[in-house]
Amino acid sequence: MGQYTAEVLWTRDGQDFLDNRYSRRHVLRFDGGVELPGSSSPLVVPLPWSDAAAVDPEELFVASLASCHMLWFLSIAAKHGFRVERYADAASGVMARDGQRRFAMTVVTLRPAVTFSDERRPTRDTLLAMHHEAHEQCFIANSVKTEVRCEPVVD
Q: Could you give the CA distance from residue 81 to residue 78 in angstroms, rounded to a whole number?
């Protein structure tokens, strides 16, 4: 289908670094031109070395799953002739130790609330079936156990 990219940039900016008391704030750049401030989570690295106002990898993981599910759901609803007026999701993720005793995002819970307009609205069963189909189609949900490769650039 295609290749997707993201650029991550961190600089020391004069901090000692070797004392482990350095800012984890960095920049995330995407191919469309969007830049986001990134950081470690304050739950992982305490303030002031993390930035609570920036986006952390765990939040990006949860948001990626929620966004993918929403995009599939909207497509499925349109295909079935249901006009969606609003879609809101208060998604959350839990960090815990996995079966190998490593920290991992062990559960992500999506809580989509969908408002429909027009006279034609899905039944409860149809709504649940559309969410199930969106989950099955979601590229990100299907990728959670994907192979992650690390290929460092070495001078």
A: 5
Domain-wise residue ranges, the chain: 1-55, 57-143
pLDDT greater than 90 at residue 137? yes
What is the value of pTM for the model shown? 0.91
Span 13-67, pLDDT tens digits? 999 999 999 999 999 999 999 999 999 999 999 999 999 999 999 999 999 999 9
Return the structure tokens found at 96: 């815990």
- Is it true that domain 57-143 has CATH number 3.40.50.300? no
Q: How confident is the model at residue 130 (pLDDT cuts 50, 70, 90)?
A: very high
